[in-house]
Amino acid sequence: MSLPPLSPEQLVKPRHFELRMSLIFATLFVPLGTHLPYFPLWLQAKGFHAEQIAVILAAPMFLRVVTTPLLTALADRARDRAYVYIALVAASLLLSAGYFLTPTYAMVLAVSLALTIVWTPHSPIADSLALSGVRRFGSNYTSMRKWGSISYLFANVAGGFILSATGARAVPVIIFAALAAALAAGLLAPRLGRPRRASPLSATDIQHAAPKLLNPYFLYFSIGVGVITASHAFLYGFVSIYWKSIGLSDSIVGLLWAWGVVSEVCMFMMFTRFFGSFSVASIMVMAGIGAIVRWIAFPLVWPLGLGVAGFFGVQTLHSVSVALVLIGLQKMIGETVSEERTGAAQGIAYFSNGFFMAVVTLASGPLYDRFGVDGFFAMIPIALVGLVLIGLAARSAPQRRIGR
Description:
transmembrane helix
């Protein structure tokens, strides 16, 4: 497929491009860094039981698997992706105000479903804008994207201290204020015109190219990655509730979440030096084993008297069970999928991760309701299934690139 040429205007680098994109990433990840650890606490504070919390968390995951590729494809066809980004952030801000209404189960579920449609595409569209700058002007992607990780850490820590003072009722306020800041930053988004190539989650690319990726290696690997990732659903949905139930303060909860992200970033920084020569199958096996060790250890930390230090130790395994999965997936795609098929490959991997995460999140509610923290043990066989799929992928690994 030939690429449309850039117009003379598109060859001109917008003023302060890197600074503007850094600001977008920084504001983009604050609401995300608040929602993941603290939204379940707000739901519990409003009287929802574990099964209802699981549905409220899982239902949007099922929905966004379908809607996000459609909206990112819309951004590809728009006159400028920045306008789509601004519109989606504005819609997210408006819909997040729905959490200020009387929090009945039906109301919160409806708001969460509507919000996920317009909120989830923020990150891939921002990535698309940043990568256009990398291709056209030689911008450094990591120097822009790192501000998202920094702000995510800040949201984890600051959110914990805010909740220590105000209680969980502050969660919707923080999310609303953070989305307002994201909208202000979005108005400064650089205008780049149409993209030259479809974004990573383009539905058109997936439909056009996916059949060439339907081979045992790619499918086993993608599903295996999705299943290992999904074994984290119990953690994401209920670990904050568990930590609060044993008397940990909101500030400690925030620091524990932040420590996991710090560990993940450290793995990104040292991966090439220590693991760069490993095969993708070996990397994924280490990730799966790290996940299993994590799920065995979590329920034992408090009964064994290891205290908060023990939880910090277990959270360090985030560098293995999460970071190595992310790196291994991209390494697999880079080594075996030809460039013109990478968009479809990313989209299929996104679907696999989203679908299995939603399924396990839905099951996590009854697990926590019945078994409490021992529900982590149920994540062990899930991670084992992922390891088996990675083993099957390794046995069917191709000797050349896929997709040509």
